[in-house]
User: Fold this.
Amino acid sequence: TWIKPLILADSIGKHPLLQMAKKRIDVADAERKVALADFLPKLNAQYGVQEIAGQSGFYQYQIGVSIPLFFLPQQGRAQSAKFERKIAEQQYRQTQLELHAEYQSLLQQYHKWLASWQFYEDEALPLAREQRQGTVIAYKEGAIDYVSFIQNLKETVQIEVRSQEALNQYLESRFQLEYFLNSFNQ
Assistant:
């Protein structure tokens, strides 16, 4: 056969759509950490150079602690961030299932058309060529009439047409599977 076999991936875990869904989970985690940080006290420090009545050399230091007294706004943001993470995880699982189903479908189509093309290439086409040669010889020797000759040639041509259709479907399914696999292998 002149067509090289397709190297199939064991996993689709590196597909760009899955990577993007994973990044959404990471973003939701970061947003949750920011929301939880609002519950913590904040330490403030300030340093400054001062000039009093035209004299320099005075320094100012300030240290302070900010303690949040009312947690309702922070609690709402923290809960929202928690729900956003759950949503991102669910979207990741959904994307994973969809990609797996699409991969399995493409793989099934590929194997179906590969088997069909191999049948035509290995069995049907050689047999059709022999039948065509035998028909021509039989017609030349007068063993069959013109109608039988045309009918036999028509059958061999139909086999060749169906083999080309199978090859076309095989190449189309291979292209779709390669595109799906190469979209995350690059």
The chain has a mean pLDDT of 86.
